[in-house]
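Give me the 3D structure for ABC-2 transporter permease.
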Amino acid sequence: MMKLEGWKDAWIIFKKDVCSDRFYLIWNVLFMLYFGGMFSTMLYSVVKFDDAFRPLADCLMLVFIPMIGFYFSRRSFSYLKEDSYTQMLWYYHTLPIPVRTIMKSRYIQLVVAILFNGILFFGAIVFIFWLGGLETSLSPIQYISFALTWIGYALFINGLYIYMEFLNRGRIYFWLSCVLMLSMVVVSVVINLFHGNLLKYTIDISARYALLSPLMWGSLLIGALGAYWMGIQTMRKLNKRDLI
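Predicted structure for ABC-2 transporter permease (244 residues):
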C-alpha cells in the first residue's frame, strides 16, 4: 500500500509540473517534429545512397535520440543560471516529500516523455517519407523494431542524465552533459574509423528480424535495467546530498 501511495504522489507531482509548463510543451512538439523531419532526409540518404552521410547520421542519433526522454520546461531552461534542479529538490525536501517519491516522479516523466516524443519524432520521419513518396526497405513492423532499438538506448543514456541532474549543481551538470555528448561523438568517429555504421546496422537487423530482433530486445533490456540501476544509485546518494 505504501508503494502504491508513493506512485500516486509521484503522479501528482508529475501532473503539476506538466500543467505549469504547458507553454514550453509547444516548443517541445515543434522541436521534435523539426528534428524528425530533418533526420528523415538523413535516414533516406543512409539507406538509398552512398556512405557520405553515415558518420554524421550516427553522431546525430547518438547525441540527439536521448533528448526524447526530456520535455522542455522552465526548469530545464534555467538550470544553468538558477540551479533550478537543486532548488526543486530542496523545495520538495522541505514539504517533506520522500526521495523515493521524487525519483518515481522523475521516472514517470521519463517514460511519458519517451512515449510522447518518440511518437512525434519517429512519426514525423514516417510522415515525411510518405509525403515525399520516398521508399525505404522497412515495413511498418520493421520500422517499429528500429524505433524501439533506439528507444532502449535513450532509456540507458537518460539514466545517466538523471544521475547527473539530481546529484550536481547546475554548472557541473552542464559540463558533465557536454562531456557525455562529446563521448558520443567520439564513439561515432571510432565506429566510422573501423568502417562501421550504427544506423545502417540497426536498420539491417530490424529489416531481418522485425519484432524478433535480438538487438531490439537487448537494447530495451539493457536500457531498462541501466535506467533502473542508475535510479537506485541516484536515490542512495541523493539521501546524503547537501542541498543548501
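The radius of gyration is 19 Å. Let me know if you want a second pass.
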